[in-house]
């Protein structure tokens, strides 16, 4: 029988491996942007995409959401280490697909016809379309995660990451994600880049 669950724990997509779920909840319980709130929001955005008619394989994509930032310490290869955690913790299937999707989130290079990757990428990036108050909190929390980086280096690096996101035709890979989030996300990202360059 699973442990007493919280609303977030109830969103675990398997009827087993509850000890893995509990370990992930502990891993996500940390300061910064990549916290339990982020996990909840990614799961919420997958629900939004599902309701909007986006096709994806629910179990591996939701598991990939649970694992995608399970390791996050502001150091290189966090996604790779998160993927390796999924490979060690899950049976295959779905371990290989979950790990593949987790690795994709490092650069969000999902092709539109890769339905699982497109859905996860869009759900992960949907924070960029948040309302102003939530977006400001997100930006502050990202800075907190990189407190070990100087202000100048952080501004340059963050502006570079955000600028790279804007270079493609769309931030989002699914037609539903584009309809839901593209316009506001582009506006928010451009505004943050401008603020970073003015400081």
Characterization of the model:
Helix content is 62%, strand content 0%. With 199 residues, it is mainly α. The protein has one domain (9-198): Hypothetical protein af1432. The N and C termini lie far apart (53 Å).
Which secondary structure elements does this structure contain, and how are they paired or packed?
Elements: H1 18-28, H2 36-51, H3 58-67, H4 78-89, H5 95-104, H6 115-125, H7 132-145, H8 151-166, H9 175-198
The helix/strand series, from N terminus to C terminus, equals HHHHHHHHH
- Number of individual domains: 1
**Based on helices, strands and strand pairing, what is the structural class?**
mainly alpha
CATH class bucket: Mainly Alpha
Which parts are unreliable, with pLDDT below 50 for 5 consecutive residues or more?
A: 1-5
Query: Per CATH, which architecture?
Result: Orthogonal Bundle
According to CATH, the fold-level topology is Hypothetical protein af1432
Counting copies of identical and different chains, the oligomeric state is: single chain
Q: What is the terminal separation in angstroms?
A: 53 Å
Strand residues, percent: under 5%
Question: Mind describing the biggest β-sheet?
Answer: none
Cα shape: globular
What value does the Rg take, in angstroms?
17 Å
The helix content is: 55-70%
Q: Using DSSP, what is the number of strands?
A: 0
Number of helices: 9
The pLDDT mean sits at 94
Comma- or semicolon-separated keywords:
single chain; 199 residues; mainly alpha; Hypothetical protein af1432; disordered N terminus
